[in-house]
Amino acid sequence: MAAAQNVPQPSAGPGAGQQHAEALDAAEVSRLRADFPILETQVGDQPLVYLDSGATSQNPRCVMEAEQQYYEQFNAAVHRGAHTLAVEATDHFEAARAAVARFIGAGDDEVVWTSNATEALNLLAYAFSNASAGRGGSAAERFRLGPGDEIVVTELEHHANLIPWQELAFRTGAALKYIPVDAAGALRMDLAPEVIGPRTRVVAFTHVSNMLGTITDVAALVALAREVGALTVLDGCQSVPHLPVDVKRLDVDFMAFSGHKMLGPTGIGALYGRRELLNAMPPFLTGGSMITTVTMERAEFLEAPNRFEAGTQRISQAVGLAAAVGYLDEVGMGRVAAWEERLGARMADGLAQLPGIRLLGPDGVARIGTATFDVEGVHPHDVGQFLDARGVAVRVGHHCAQPLHRALGVTASTRASTYLYNTEQDVDAMLNAVADVRGFFGAEA
């Protein structure tokens, strides 16, 4: 892949690939793997098999080089000062915003930098809370909530798209409702019209379940929200890295996602919001760089995105994320999605053939390359340690989705999640290791 350039180049468009693009092939994946130095790691005497990209993806060299180059050549505070370095740093910072905005099909002023998706979702919830307290004037009325109003989420949600709305309901007196899942973990879309009603003000839901990898019917939920005039908030943490995503086609009002799950650095995330909504919404964090006029009694705020970016910004991280989306665009998001679909099917089919292994989630639904499972008689932490001894890195625990685990009748699980740099051999190594777990722990019948 191309090395980092002096200024991050805007991506070609929302997801560059097509939804039904031809998958990557094994030779291409092998070439891509050479861009990720960490994949050469040995775990003891075993080669690393990294199947935890759902938690944090690995970084190609171009991302690390972009951050290093920024610090070596352009480091300065952005939007402050008129000296050469300050101007160049600002140019890089805003070029990065443009690149990420184009990657998801948004306008440059519709992307707000945050530390991660959790902060982005909290930004929204607290901004709505401020509007509910009277901040923002008449322009912010549409964000005001109070007793009698309802916020709707789903039982699929990561805690980051659940707890902020619980807290908003507590602060405002609004009611929190949710669309449940069935016994297999499928969202009960048949019940959605009963849950989303005339009192619904916000509908917040995940695009892709971080635990199961299942893909939500965004269009159906957006249509129900539109019928009652509710705002829509999409958790894109597991979709933006793995699928072609165009926020305008999805027709959502807001979307949150994180850089570290899509080949980018940690410490950088983003909130997409429709321009007119961001400009009407009162800020969450306040301080320097987000104001127009300040007196000892009051302040007036800039338009978005600046009004939500108080203080010193995540400059090098934004530059690194721009390099990451450039890399993904060059590969093609449609091709990434098709390859991961193949790997995910291989994992699911292989796990289904192993005795004592329960693959979690509904059958016959669209998924990204993620498989989550329960091993009969063995705690997931033990499963994870056994696999780690074989060099296989997976996620164990409740994956910040305790309500979904509870609905499926388990307290914890093991999750294997793929990305563009994983191979069929990686999947087979995981399956072979899982096949030996129950025997090792004496859990076989």
Descriptive report:
The chain is globular, with a radius of gyration of 22 Å. Helix content is 37%, strand content 15%. The chain folds into 2 domains: 26-56 and 332-440, Aspartate Aminotransferase, domain 1, CATH 3.90.1150; 68-329, Type I PLP-dependent aspartate aminotransferase-like (Major domain) (Aspartate Aminotransferase, domain 2, 3-Layer(aba) Sandwich), CATH 3.40.640.10. Strand 1 and strand 2 form a beta hairpin. The protein has a 7-stranded mixed beta sheet with strand order 4-10-9-8-7-5-6, with helices on both faces. A 4-stranded antiparallel beta sheet has the order 13-14-17-16. Strands 1-2 form a two-stranded antiparallel sheet. It has helices at residues 26-33, 61-73, 84-103, 117-132, 163-172, 192-195, 218-228, 247-250, 275-280, 315-331, 333-352, 380-389, 402-408, 424-440, and strands at 42-43, 46-47, 49-50, 111-114, 150-154, 175-179, 200-206, 231-235, 254-258, 269-273, 291-294, 299-301, 357-359, 370-375, 392-393, 395-397, 413-417. By secondary structure, the protein is α/β, with parallel strands linked by helices.
Briefly summarize what is shown:
This protein has helices spanning 26-33, 61-73, 84-103, 117-132, 163-172, 192-195, 218-228, 247-250, 275-280, 315-331, 333-352, 380-389, 402-408, 424-440, and strands spanning 42-43, 46-47, 49-50, 111-114, 150-154, 175-179, 200-206, 231-235, 254-258, 269-273, 291-294, 299-301, 357-359, 370-375, 392-393, 395-397, 413-417.
